[in-house]
Amino acid sequence: MSKVRKRLHMPGLLVVGDAARLIDPLTGGGGISNACISGKMAAESILLSRDRQEAGQIYEDRVRERFEVPHMRGGWFMKEKLMEVSDELIEAVVDALHSVDLGTFSPQELINAVASTRPSLMEEIRRFAGL
Ligand SMILES: Cc1cc2nc3c(=O)[nH]c(=O)nc-3n(C[C@H](O)[C@H](O)[C@H](O)COP(=O)(O)OP(=O)(O)OC[C@H]3O[C@@H](n4cnc5c(N)ncnc54)[C@H](O)[C@@H]3O)c2cc1C
């Protein structure tokens, strides 16, 4: 689960779907719909363009605007951050979810709940949050 590919076209080739890495980097979801959408975008870009280079550029711009900028960069950042976290902290957070009101809880409340049961993890939480 990586970032969207750096290059999505070359003369005569438009890269779509999984090959373009159009999967949510955080959840791994959306692969089927993203493959369909990017395939449609590739076909439209070819129809709209005068030559291969232009088709590639139109396609690349559309894919980056649709997938990369608003959504996947944030997901990729979160995935990278979560990979720094120990299994123990993830388990502590899941345990702590039992003690908060899921309808209204705040991140601080969750941190407090973890701290009350596993104070030894506070240093890792501070590092994760950049405190
Ligand atoms: C176990 C699993 C579960 C998943 N569950 C979900 C889910 O619930 N929801 C969701 O949205 N996504 C899910 N995905 C992801 C989703 O399947 C992919 O994101 C999606 O299929 C990507 O479509 P694609 O067309 O890019 O690639 P693919 O579906 O992989 O299609 C590529 C095709 O190219 C063919 N091919 C490869 N090499 C060559 C070659 N040299 N010559 C000719 N043909 C070739 C392959 O055989 C394949 O048929 C799941 C994936 C897996 C592995």
Q: Which hetero ligands occur in this complex?
A: flavin-adenine dinucleotide
**How many structural domains in the coordinates?**
2
Helix content: 55-70%
Number of helices: 5
- Can you tell me the overall shape? elongated
Your description of this structure?
- By secondary structure, the chain is mainly alpha-helical.
- The protein folds into 2 domains: 9-83, no CATH class; 87-129, no CATH class.
- Helices cover 60% and strands 3% of the residues.
- The chain contains 5 helices and 2 strands.
- It has helices at 31-48, 52-83, 87-96, 107-117, 122-129; strands at residues 9-10, 13-14.
- It has a two-stranded antiparallel sheet.
- Strand 1 and strand 2 form a beta hairpin.
- The two termini are 27 Å apart.
- Bound molecules: flavin-adenine dinucleotide (FAD).
- Flavin-adenine dinucleotide binds at residues 17-19, 23, 29-33, 35.
Which characteristics define this entry?
mainly alpha; two-stranded antiparallel sheet; 2 strands; binds flavin-adenine dinucleotide
SSE arrangement:
Elements: E1 9-10, E2 13-14, H1 31-48, H2 52-83, H3 87-96, H4 107-117, H5 122-129
Antiparallel strand pairs: 1-2
Bound molecules: flavin-adenine dinucleotide.
Flavin-adenine dinucleotide binds at residues 17-19, 23, 29-33, 35.
Task: Provide a short characterization of the protein structure.
With 131 residues, the protein is mainly α. Helices cover 60% and strands 3% of the residues. Helix 1 packs antiparallel against helix 2 and helix 3 packs across helix 4.
